[in-house]
Amino acid sequence: MKQVVIEFRKVSKRFGDIAAVIDNNLAVEQGEFLSILGPSGCGKTTSLRMMAGFEQPTSGEVFIRGEKVTGVPAYRRPVNMVFQHYALFPHLSIADNVSYGLRQRSPRPSAGEITKSVDEALDMVRLGGFGKRRTYELSGGQQQRVALARALINRPAVLLLDEPLAALDRKLRREMQVELQNLQRTVGITFLLVTHDQEEALSMSDRVCVMREGRVVQTGSPRDLYDTPINRYVAEFVGKSNFFSAASGNVTSVRPELIDIAARRKDLPQGLAIRTDGRVLNRIFLGEQTEYRIASDELGEFTVVAPRKAEHLSGTFNIGDSISAGWRPEHARLLPDN
After folding, report:
1. What CA–CA distance (Å, rounded) separates 139 from 106?
2. Which CATH architecture has domain 241-336?
3. How many other β-carbons are positioned within 10 Å of the β-carbon of residue 17?
4. For a Cys staple, 32 with which of 154, 177, 206, 227, CB 3.0–4.6 Å?
5. Model's pTM, two decimal places?
6. Which of 60, 64, 66 is nearest to 24 (CA)?
C-alpha cells in the first residue's frame, strides 16, 4: 500500500463571507501525478496554497507524510511550488535562480555542492550549459523548465504546480505536458497540478480530482471520470457529452464519439438501442476527425464525432444532408442532473 504524502481532513477555507473550500477530504499518494481540475473560482488554487502553507485552513487539518502541518509556515514544509508566471529573478543568472533555495538554507551548502546540484537540476530539465544565461534570453518553455529545476533542486516531498503551462502556446504546451510526465517518472516525486484545462489533466495524471464551488465532486483515474462520471457536471467538464432528458430529474449521457451515423437507417450497424433521423446543422473539420452537429425531431440537437478512418468507409456529410444516427445501449449512461 502506497504512503499518503498529503492529506486533507474536512478542510474548509473562508475569506470573509466567501466559502472558497468547503469540508474537503483528499489523500495524495506517494509518487503519483494528481491534478485538481475545475473552473475559475472552484477552490483549486486555494487548496494548493493551503498545501504549500501560503494559506491556513479556517477549519480542518492538513497532513504531510502523516504529520499535521496546519499552522506551519510555507518555508518549513517539504513542498515546493511552481507558479503560473514562474516568478524568476531577471537580475540573476539561470544558475543563481536555480540555486536560490539552496543558498537560503542554514547551514548553507558549500559552493561546490551548490554548483553540483545546479548542474544536476539543469541536466534533469534538459538545460545543461544554460547556467550563465539570463531569463530574458530564454523562451517561455525554457523559463518554465528553469522554474521546475529551481523547485526540484531541494528534492521536495511534493511538487505543487499552479497552472504552469497556461502562458504557453498550444504546441509548446503539448510538448511540456509530455516533458512533465517524463520528468515526474524520472525523479519519482509526487506532482500535484492545478488546472482548468481538462485535456491537460486527463493526458498527464494518474488521478484527477474534479472540484465545483469549493467542493470535491469526484476523484478517480482519467478513464474512470470519462467513462463513469458521477453526475452531469463531471460528464460536461471531463470531455464532451450529449445530454437527453430522462425521468425523475436525470439525464441520459452519450459521448459524441460513440454515436454512429450513416446516410440511411439500414446502413447503421446492428445492435443499436436508439435510432433517429436528422439533418446536419454544422460540420467542423478537425484533421484527425470531423465534428457534426445534428438536429433530430425526436431528440433535439446533439454532436457526433466521426474519426477520419470511419469517414473513409462511410463517406462525409455536408451541412443540410439528411442522416441517420444511433448508439448501443451500453454507451448511454443515466446520470443525476447535478
Report:
1. 33
2. Beta Barrel (2.40)
3. 5
4. 206
5. 0.86
6. 60
205 alpha carbon, distance to own chain's centre = 7
> For residue 147, is pLDDT > 90?
no
Count of Cβ atoms closer than 10 Å to residue 235 Cβ: 24
The architecture in CATH of the region 4-234 reads 3-Layer(aba) Sandwich (3.40)
92 touches 100 (CB < 8 A): yes
206 or 141: whose pLDDT is higher? 206
The model's confidence at residue 186, banded by pLDDT at 50, 70 and 90, is confident
Angle between helices 94-103 and 140-152 (to 10 degrees): 20
Give tens-digit pLDDT for 297-312: 999 999 999 888 766 6
- For the chain, where do the domains classified as CATH 2.40.50.100 start and end? 241-336
Residue 24, C-alpha cell as written in the block: 474537503
Q: Start-end ranges of CATH 3.40.50.300 in the chain?
A: 4-234
